[in-house]
Amino acid sequence: MINFMNLDFKENALEPVISKKTIEFHYGKHHKAYVDKVNELIKQTEFDNMSLEDIIKNSYEKKDLVTLYNNAGQVYNHNMYWESFGIGQKLGADFRKEIIDTFGSLEDFREKLVDEGMKVFGSGWVWLVRNEKGNLEVITTKNGDTPLVSKKEPIFNVDVWEHAYYLDYQNLRKKYLENVINFLLKM
Fold it and tell me: Which helix (H) or strand (E) holds 109?
């Protein structure tokens, strides 16, 4: 069974960038629905006692498990999304230096995240990951895909599905990305 994660912050803690109403819908309805669907799909199967990460890895690219893979990926991606916010925590000085060394400056890094998030057509995610060589990268994934299946270590992400921002920003994805990246990420 996969547990529905508890938020490390109150539903109004991200205001004014993300409203309490958006959190109630995004976390309380969308995210919860993915968890419920995964639990429905794994009940009394070989996946029933697997970790979320193992469910994702073992269902990836299997035609008969696409629904499980997509829903498990969405649970994982949303868990990471909520953990990406810097409520009471920031990345350490060494990690900030690594970001600056890799991307040129924190501002260049933020711009890269926004630019890549804007390139996602439809629904998906923009991620900061560590690749197999140990280097930082900004990547995007579509729908329920996660970096786990490409052997990249996720550090944080930003959700660019419309349900993440539509109540607060309507069709202004760029403004949402800029606000989340500049004011909420644990940087």
Answer: helix 106-119
Q: Is the pLDDT of residue 186 over 90?
A: no
Whether 78 and 131 share a structural domain:
no
Residues 98, 79 share a domain: no
* Each residue's pLDDT tens digit, 46-76: 999 999 999 999 999 999 999 999 999 999 9
Q: Is 140 helix (H, G, I), strand (E, B) or coil?
A: strand
What are 32-41's contacts with CB under 8 Å, separation 24+?
32/4, 34/71, 34/74, 34/75, 34/78, 35/2, 35/3, 35/4, 35/75, 37/67, 37/71, 38/2, 38/68, 38/71, 38/72, 38/75, 39/1, 39/2, 41/67, 41/68, 41/71
Same-domain pairing of 101 and 174: yes
Sequence-separated (6 or more) residues with CB below 8 Å from residue 12: 19, 20, 23
In terms of domains, do 74 and 105 share one? Answer: no
Structure tokens at 175: 């403004």
Domain that holds residue 49: 20-83
